[in-house]
Structures are given as C-alpha cells and as structure tokens.
Task: structure prediction
Amino acid sequence: MIIKNISLTNFKSYYHRNDFEFKKGLNIISGHEGSGKSNLFDGFMWLLFNKINGLGKNQRLDESNVSIVNDKIKNEFFIDNSSDKINCEVEIELTMPPSSSFAYSREFKVTRRKEISLNKDSNGKNFFDNTVWNNYGSELIVEWTDEKFNTKPFYDHNAEEELNKIFPEKIRKYIWFQGEQLNDLLDFDNKYTLGKAIEHISYLHAFEHMSNINEGIQELLVKKNQNLLKSHNKDKKNFDRLMSEIKIDEKTLESNKKKLSNAILELKGINEARKKQKNQLTILAGMPILQKEEGKLEGQLNTLKEHVSTLNDQERRKFVNLWMLKGTEGLFKKADSEIEKFITHRLSLAAENDKQLEEGTPGDALINKMLEKKRCIICDREAPENSDPYISIKSHLDSNKKLKTLDPHIELLNDRVRDIKSFPPRISNRIANIDKSILDFQENISSKTKERNAQNIKLKNIKEKIQDLINEKGEGILNMNPDNINATLTRLDNDAGIMNRRIPALKIDISELENSIKQRNESLNKLKDPGVKDFVEHKLTLYTTFLKTVIKEQTIKQRIDLIEKIENTANAIQSNIAEINNVVIVKVKIDRDDYSLSFVDSNGNPNPGHGAQNTLAKMSIINAIVKISSEMQNRAYPFIADAPTSDFGSQFTNRFIESISNTYEQSIIITKDLVEEVTKLKKMKYVSNVIEIKKDSENDVALSTNSITKIL
Amino acid sequence: METIAEKIKKSFDKSLINKDLNQELMDFLSNKLINEAADRLQEGYDKQPEKIAKDFAANLITKANELKL
Result:
C-alpha cells in the first residue's frame, strides 16, 4: 500500500488547502519547532483514529471540539460575520495492489471532514460566548476506484468498516507512531498489546478457523456413519444402548463445553478486575510516595525560605553598618594624618630647644667615661681637657643640663595621642576588608536562593505529578482505601484460583467424554453387519482426527516460531543500527506463555535500558512487527512517525532512518532532528523525497515548500 | 509472490503427510481448509461455519468415492 498524498484544509495551522505528495520509499518531512509538523501528524491521526494527540491517552476527539479548525479562518469569518460554513478536512489518497479481495489494484480516497458556521442571534449578530460556533460534527467517507474505473463510496459506519480493512485496527498503532509519546500510544507494559499484534500478524486465526470447520466436518461424518450403521447392524439392542449412551455423553460434552467457555470468560473477567485493583494499588502506592515527598520538600523549602529571609535581614543590617563604617574611612585617614602632623610638630618643638637632649643622648656614666678618656665615643674624636669638645661633652652631664620642658598642654595631648595612635590604622585596615565581606555575604545568600529555587522546581514537579495522577484517575483516587482494595483483590485471587482449578478439570472431563464417544462409535462400528464394507464416512473420520492433531500442534508451533521471529528481527534491527554507533543494546525478550515483554542484557539478565537504548528497543519491536506482518499477510503498510528520533544523536538518527527505509515499502518520517541535514539527505540513496515545512510567521500558518523529489 | 494460502500450507511443512492415509485425499481436505482459512483471514467476513463444514463434508465424501477409498 502506498499513500500518494495528504491534503489538509483549514486543519489546525493549515490555512485553506495544503497538499503533501509522497513517494514510495522514505519520505522525510522536516521543519523547525512550531512549523506545523505535528499538526500534519495530527491530520493523519484525526483521519484514521478520529482523535488527536494532546487530548490525553486514548481520548477521542469530542465532536463539539472546534479547536482543530484553523484559527485564522475562524477569525476571518468572525470579522466578516460570514454566513458560510468553514470546511475543515483531511484527505488521503492511497493505492492498494491486487489481492484475493479484489483482482485489480484500487485507488482509495479516505476523507474526514467537519463543518462549522457562526451562530448568530435573531439580529444576525455573532455570539461572543462558547456558543459562537455551530458545530456539525464530523463525517468519514471512504471511496475506491479500480482499474476499470468502477467506484464505490462508503459513509459513516460502512466507511469505518472499509477503513478497518485498509488499516486493520490491531496493526494501526504500529503504523502511526509518535516518538515523544511512544509509551502513550503503545502500552508496552500491557501483555495484551503484543498478544493482539501477534494474533493479527500470525496465521493463528486461520488455524482456529480450520480447526472449527474440521470439527464440523468430523461431527457430520460421525452422524452420517451412525445413520448408516442404524440400518446395517447385527445387534439392534446393543446398538440402541450405545447410541443412547453416546447421546448422553454428547449432551454432557456440550454442557461441559459451555461451562468451559463460561469459565474461561469468567476467568478473563476476574483477571481484568484483578488487574484493575492491582493498578489502583500501584496508583495508591505511588500517591502516598508523592505526597510524602511533597510534604518533605515543603518542609525543606520553608526552612530554606526562613534561612534566606534571615540572611536577608542580617544582610540589610550588616550592609547598613558596614557602609556607615565605610563612609568614615576618610575621617579615619584624616585623623591618622592629623596625629602624624601633631607628632611631627611636637618633635620639631623639642628640636628647637637646643638644651633638650635628643633621644639617644648618652647618660652621665658614659659622659664621665668620655671625659676620663678625653675622647668622644659618639663621633670618635679626641677631646683634650678644657678643649671645646671636652667642654661640650661635659655640658651634657645632667647636672649641667638646663632642660626646657615643652608646654604641659602639648605633653598632655601627646599622652592622649599615644593612647589612640594605633586606632585609625587598625580601623582603616578593617574598612579595607568590608568589600570582601559584603561579597562573601552576597555569595552566601545567592547560593541559598539558588538552593531554594531548585527545591521550588522539585516541589512544582511533584505537585504536577500528583495533579496528573488526579487528572488521569479522577478525584476518587484521594478517597481510595487500600484495605478495601486488598480485600477485593484477595477475593478475586480466590475466585481466580477456583477457576484455574475448574478449567483444567473441565478440559479433562471434555477430553474423557470425547474419548468415550469415540470408543462407543468404534463399538457401534463393530456391530455392523459382517457382509457390509466399512462406510466411507467412517474411514474419513481418520482424516479429520489426524488433521485435528496436526492443526493443534501447528498452532502451538506457530506461536513460538512467531515470538522467536519477532525477537530475532527486532534484535537484528537494533544490532544493525547500533553496530556503527558502538552502542550496547538491550535485547528484546517475549514471554512464550503470556506475551509479556522484557529487556535483557547480553547475558540474559534483566535490563530495561534507558533513554535512546530503551527507545531503540521498543521501536525495533514496532518495526519487526510491521515487517513480519507485511511478509505474512502479503500487505505492506506504510510507517508514519513523528519525532521517532527525539532521543537519538545525529549519527544514530541517520542510521535509524536508513534502517526504516530498508524495513518499509513506504515510510513518512516527520522530524525536526534533521533540519540542518536536509541538503545532505536529499543526496542520500535511501531518501526518496524531502519536504520542508515552514511557518508563515506573518499569518501564523504552516506552509509546505515544494517537495524535492527524486525518482527512484 | 506466494499467496497467503501457499504460505499457510508451507508453514505446515511435512506434518500433513501420513503414510497410513491416502495423501491425495489428505491434500484435498487440507487444501480446502487452508484456502477457506486464508480467504477468511484476508476478507474478515464470517461465513457460516456450519454451512462450510456441510459443503466440505459432501465434497470430501464425493472425492473419497472417486478415489474408491
């Protein structure tokens, strides 16, 4: 199947009609964030699922929702007060090759459209409230044309049925894929997800159908044989007894088959209820953890807030004090300078008095020694007795000094100055450190503020998670009682236990009854008149019995083979991509009994992987399923993915894209990851078509550039 | 390209061979069942299995008589 084109008319950011032409092979749609790429993907989603992303998991688009209609055209209609209808439409055209369903290839046109118009009051004026738009709902139309130009349109329910034939429901999720919402679209934790896909791509349904028809044939053959034996037996009495016993067995068998079928259904219901209860327990387990974390963070945050607030107060006070001190810096410098001036002044006064001994003048003992030796030991000159130097030395004897003391006020002041002399330099030194002190303080408060902001973000995230949980599960989650859930779960576990014992017992009963009927039929056959040959109907039951066993074994074999094939294909796809990127992959492992999925390392130990590793593993499963489906069902589906590589680096992305081109007959990859590489991609052998989407900023609408197409 | 019926047949490999039974008749019955199952797989429609079984049983008896089983 090849999707030839898609047109979007007034859908989301697409104003009027916008066409995208696709080719066989790999089509890349590239554009910057906000250019309209995801709206294009939403166009596919709306057309095929009647829902768009961003509305929540599995949520279908409300018919009253007019948000999918382009805003620009709605504004124009509103301003012009137009009476016309706005047509919002998405349409794809695709080609399907001939199949057993139709001899010629067919062109399909699938259209989903919605109309809205302005709702006006009796004076023809627009409403301004939420009734502004008349909403006519949406309709789906599927139309095919064959090579003989026969056409047939289908509407509504019939169109949905036709759409399901083109894109079977069970495989649709594997075809349309949004990388950023991988886990929302495809619930890998749910074992039924893979189970359903395996059922669809395998021949298990075919085997089941074969088995049913075969059993029907066998029943008819047995009945026919019994009817023939009725008129060709040698012991009517025993024949009637055996027939009567067979009838009783058949009645019991029928009743037991019904019981088995009911028991299986009941067990399924019980298991679903158990799953629901367990899910609630998980949610409940998650909620208290989140709430506890919320409380803890709030406590930490309050402490931090107080801390920051205290620091702020301290800072303000300290800042004022320090800056006041800083303001006196000049005064202290001046005081220091004045003190120096005073000291100098006093010394000069003292020097003026020649009688005043300068500091360091020798004492009387030394002077007497100099007089005795008649030599000045300070200037090392001879001082003969009564010479001028001798007289000068002698004059310095205390007894000869005529000290002239300085003004007592100056000396008093000198005493005080001596006391405070060291203060101004000490304070100046401290003032010089004020700047650093302020900076240290600001750094401290900044670090605490950062810590507080980080805690705030953490708290916001926790609150969002709690709100998401409430939004997803409803307010009721706050009132759930784990004791009640556990009690229900225990009761359900008991019920499941009963069913799990009853089902095998019923299967044994059924098997025994079938054997009993078979043996009685054999006994009936032995009552046949000796002259009459075995009836062909009897001989044919050997064929149906043999086939019954073969089909049963084949069903088991096919399941196992298919699981192995999915694992091997997915792991090969991964290895191929990881090989040149030197990345360690996590291998895909599917449980043989319940299809549950797990990831293991090269030694077989559980390893869920992370980031790109995990995304690659999951996407490889998707690719494997679609690839095998194409092989087994003779029908190639396209692969349409939005941002499949958002977790990958550029080299990884290119390799993944190349791998996709090998897996699918047609793939459409919508991505922003390759914007910078568009020119390079256009030259790649494995790329058939590159389309760039750009945003018309002036009109706030999306525009597709002409597609740059290569003919392969 | 192999049809789905051919692929289903191939998946049975040699398990449909039984020396004690007439292989032509076995092939006749298994082919009928496989073709019917392949059709159903592709079409998805639900023909009445009772009616199909009745037709097949009648065809099988005719074939067995032809082969003088």
Observations:
- Residues 55-60, 354-360, 706-712 of chain A have pLDDT under 50 and may be disordered.
- The first helix of chain A runs from residue 37 to 49.
- Chain A touches chain B through 37 residues (CB under 8 Å).
- The CA atoms of residues 343 and 414 of chain A lie 8 Å apart.
